[in-house]
Amino acid sequence: MEEFDGLLRCWLQILADKGIEELILINRPMPLGCLLRSTFFLPSTFLGMTTLTCLYLGLWKFPDMAGVKRVTFSPNLRELGLCTVLMESKDLDFILDRSPVLETLCVESNIFKLGLRLVSQSIRCVKIILSFFEEIAVVDAPCLERLILSGGWTKDGVCTKVKIGHAPKLHSLGYLDSENHVLEFGNTVIKAGTKTSPSTMVPSVRILALEVRCGVRSYAKMIPTVLGCFPNVETLHIMVKPVWRNWSTLWQAQP
């Protein structure tokens, strides 16, 4: 689409004029290096689609927000999906701040350094799939019910900080991975043996999911400590992850 910038803008404007409600806009699959080197940004035309209720974007560079008017991004947007979208933390802040009825946010296959600062009076479900975030901070989300983390990983040995602040309706959380996630409350980092207190507890959570490498003692010892932070859990899911180092040693030992 880099060669057809004007055409794409025209298409988007036609859709905007027609009052489109659902849009899935996926760029042509390309090697990641091409996306990183490209100077082509998704036209900001979609920011003016005030009738949108559902939007999914894939394989784009988020528009340069310099000069964009500080207006509501989409007053009717309830569902947003971002798959391999090159963007900055301030762009996510922009979307959340200007989507007053957004209920579902899904970020998938994000490999860029992002921080998610969740401040929303409407968000109910956040899904982070196969992505790396420097920090996921639930600052003020009074309607948040589910925070789903799937397939998390570290980058340059840096784990994702998961901070749970004001989320009184949060009832489902996971998968928390002791290898890839660091649970933090205020200035308290939860480690094996940390004594919990009211300030490090989330009593609303009823469903909790953990990923654990049970072959690594330090990871397994985190389970009771994490459970102490969620005292009212009724359903616990534990996914046991293989210890690849041990499997490799075993394989090499075979005759």
Structure description:
With 255 residues, the protein is α/β, with parallel strands linked by helices. The protein has a domain at 1-32 and 40-83. The protein is 19% helix and 31% strand. It has six helices and 14 strands. The chain has helices at 5-17, 32-37, 89-97, 217-220, 222-229, 244-252; strands spanning 22-26, 54-61, 79-86, 104-108, 115-119, 125-129, 135-140, 146-150, 160-166, 172-177, 181-185, 188-189, 207-212, 235-240. The strands form two sheets. Strands 1-2-3-4-6-8-10-13-14 form a nine-stranded parallel sheet, with no helix packed on it. Strands 5-7-9-11-12 form a five-stranded mixed sheet. Strand 1, helix 2 (32-37) and strand 2 (54-61) form a beta-alpha-beta unit. The longest helix has 13 residues, at 5-17. The termini are far apart. Mean pLDDT is 85; it is low at 246-255. Pfam families: LRR_At5g56370 (PF24758). It comes from Triticum turgidum subsp. durum. Residues 9-238 form the F-box/LRR-repeat protein 15/At3g58940/PEG3-like LRR domain.
